Amino acid sequence: MSHISLSRASSSSGSGEEDVASGEACKLSSISSRRPAGVGKARKLVPPLKVDLSSCKYELFRLIAGRLGWQLVPEGSSEWDMYWTDTSISQERLINLKPTQRINHFHGMLELCRKRSMAKHLSALAALIPPELKYDFFPQTWQLPGQLNAFLAAAKAAGKKQAFIVKPDAGCQGKGIKLVQGGPEATVLKHLAGLATLEAVAQQYMTRPFLINGLKFDLRVYVLVTDVDPLRLFIYKEGLVRFCTTPYKKPTSKNLDCAYMHLTNYAVNKTNSDAFVAPADSNEHVASADDDDEDSSASKWTFLQLRQYLESQGHSWCSLWDSIGQLIVKSLLSVAPHLAATYRASAVDGGPPTSAAPPANTSSAVIGSSIKSSKPLVSASALAAGSCRCCLMLTCGPG
Fold first, then answer.
1. Is residue 341 predicted with pLDDT exceeding 50?
2. Which string of b and e fits 309-329 if b means at least 16 CB within 10 Å?
3. In Å, what is the CA distance from 311 to each residue of 299, 305, 315, 316, 318?
4. Which of 9, 51, 18 shows the shortest CA–CA distance to 282?
5. Paired sense of beta strands 163-168 and 141-144, if any
6. DSSP 230-255
7. Maximum average pLDDT range among 91-105, 130-144, 310-324
């Protein structure tokens, strides 16, 4: 796991993707009850970690808790060491944490979870960054409905040669995503009228993605944030490669609605029964390099498989991974000032005057960033990040 820590001077949270985490978690074992090596009396046993999973719907966490020997506490109990929740947390909950308690979200993380907020922060920082730093890893983005007129003007100027992808602000698992072609305002508005909500982002669609076996794919990268003041994060070196299940063609009026061709979301493509290929031996198993060669046709790979494939084609994995690291850091830097200010106000300044302020690392969060690559493959400018989403520890959120 790569570790990155940034000082304060740098400042100006279900879809079947939990299988990587499950595989890693199954390798862990609780050692609290083992007798230490050597002669003599056994040390006093360490009490099991008490965890509250009453607000977590994912069975994976109960499986992990059981394997690690953790103790589940009943709903409503305040006697827990770790609280795991699928949703964002309130300021009041953070303020009332005991010094020994931990929770898997930072207050204010919705700025990272919501696509419009993330676009706002990325665009604001990009406007301040010198051109030589190449803050150009995300496509041009419009926040709707506030920037609707600017989007319509850009779509009209681009014409049918340019497609745009519109994503609901709070959407997940590919739900509500729509591709539209540029053209007259009336035509674009007609397509937008079919959306469930206009609270969304519109982005230029990458029409020349890097393909494997003719299929579009993305990389699901997992990032553990352990502190926001200063920003401290770890990038997990393994992750998921999610493939579309219909060979890619440039968007036209005839294929704009083909989700299996354009959307890499696992939740979308696993429903394509005619083309989806599950990794060997499993319903939800993620293949490794030790699996059979036929697993190379699976609709989901590990990073190890992708690395082996890219290097066999003459591409540099190290260069690509370096670009991904830069992308992750730049993305989080855009929201770091907001997260730090919110956390200080909640966990320090807002704390009860009669109690000790909780330590700076009472919270943690795992972010899942979806990354796509265009041609050429390994330059930072060739990478385009989807909006980051808050994800559960060891698993990613619905994708």
1. yes
2. bbeeeebebeebbebbbbbbb
3. 20, 10, 5, 6, 10
4. 18
5. unpaired
6. TEEEEE-S--EEEE-SS------TTT
7. 310-324
- Tell me which of 16 and 175 has the higher pLDDT: 175
Is pLDDT at 241 greater than 80 in this prediction? yes
The separation between CA 173 and the C-alpha centre of its own chain, rounded to angstroms, equals 12
Confidence category of residue 42, pLDDT binned at 50, 70, 90: low
Q: Who's near 240: CB < 8 A, 6+ residues apart?
A: 17, 20, 219, 220, 266, 286, 300, 301, 302, 303, 396
Distance set, CA 71 to CA 60, 81, 327 (Å): 15, 10, 38
Query: What would the pLDDT profile of 258-271 be if each residue is shown by its tens digit?
Result: 999 999 999 999 99
Backbone φ and ψ for 22, nearest 5 degrees, come out as -60, -40
Q: In what order do the strands lie in the sheet with 163-168?
A: 141-144, 200-204, 163-168, 178-181
pLDDT, mean of residues 240-246: 96
Q: What angle do CA 309, 311, 315 make, to 5 degrees?
A: 110
Q: Both tokens of residue 129?
A: 């960054």
Judge contact between 32 and 64, C-beta under 8 A.
Answer: no
Q: Half-sphere exposure of residue 304, counting CA atoms within 13 Å on the CB side?
A: 9
Q: How far is CA 209 from the centre of its chain?
A: 20
3-state secondary structure of 318: helix
The beta strands (E) that lie in 331-382 are given as 365-373
174 neighbors 263 (Cβ within 8 angstroms):
yes
Question: What amino acid is encoded at 381 in this protein?
Answer: S
Kindly state the average pLDDT of the residues 358-387.
59
Q: In terms of pLDDT, which residue wins out, 56 or 366?
A: 56
The residues with which 50 forms a beta bridge, in sequence order, are 71
CA pseudo-torsion sign 64, 68, 69, 70: negative
**DSSP string of 256-274?**
TT-HHHH---HHHHTT-TT
Residue 53's pLDDT band, with cuts at 50, 70 and 90, is very high
* Rounded-to-integer distance, Cα 26 and Cα 344, Å: 36
pLDDT tens by residue, 6-23 = 543 333 344 444 444 444
* Contact present, 395 and 17 (Cβ < 8 Å): yes
